Amino acid sequence: MNDQLRRDIRKSFDEAAGDEEHFPSSIDPRIQHVQVLLRHFAPVDNHRILDVGCGKGRYARVILERNPSARLTGLDISERMLQSVPAGINRVSGIMSELPFPDGAFDGVYATESLEHAVDIERAVSEMCRILRPGGKLAIIDKNAEHWGKLKTPEWERWFNRRELEKLLSRHCRSVRSEPISYWEDVAPDGLFLVWLAEK
């Protein structure tokens, strides 16, 4: 990612930090994005878990509330977003393609609607897998490329098809699977969101 694009993306999310309607600081724990993460990482215990592209930390907030002994870290490109991350969650400024952590630093890593902003997707996936310990779990929830154009997107954003990310994850992880995901439990998946679940 070149410096100008990095500045543009950071500026966009710094400005979005003031938009609580579209970039909220909390999320309904019944939403399936949250439920998938809670199931995938259970039992959490005192595990080290990283929220990559955490925004205001709304997913990390729920995980910590349900698992008070967990050690949560939120990473985001926007320091203004990080200001809203709740107490008890470690805040780190950085980008997905250059994660500032040593190899094997986390037991669990997830990226929820954030990989689409990474620009260098292959490098970002490699980085998330690098900082995951052997046996650790990874979850990516993002939008399906087959539905591209359904929502307004910034020029750098990318959506993915199932096989594309399965292939990238399979380079680093021993098990990888994906499936469509709905937003609410009682609504069938419409194909917009996919989840990729992997174990290193």
Q: Can you summarize this structure?
A:
This protein has helices at residues 3-16, 32-41, 58-66, 79-82, 121-130, 162-170; strands at 48-52, 71-76, 90-93, 106-112, 132-143, 175-181, 193-199. The chain is α/β, with parallel strands linked by helices.
Distance between the termini: 26 Å
Strands in their spatial order, largest beta sheet: 3-2-1-4-5-7-6
CATH-defined superfamily: Vaccinia Virus protein VP39
How would you classify the helix and strand content by structural class? alpha/beta
Describe this structure in words.
The protein has helices at 3-16, 32-41, 58-66, 79-82, 121-130, 162-170; strands at 48-52, 71-76, 90-93, 106-112, 132-143, 175-181, 193-199. The chain has 200 residues and is an alpha/beta fold. It has one domain: Rossmann fold. Strands 3-2-1-4-5-7-6 form a seven-stranded mixed beta sheet, with helices on both faces.
Set down the secondary structure blueprint:
Blueprint: H1 3-16, H2 32-41, E1 48-52, H3 58-66, E2 71-76, H4 79-82, E3 90-93, E4 106-112, H5 121-130, E5 132-143, H6 162-170, E6 175-181, E7 193-199
Parallel strand pairs: 1-2, 1-4, 2-3, 4-5
Antiparallel strand pairs: 5-7, 6-7
Task: Describe the structure using short key phrases.
single chain; 200 residues; alpha/beta; Rossmann fold; 6 helices; globular
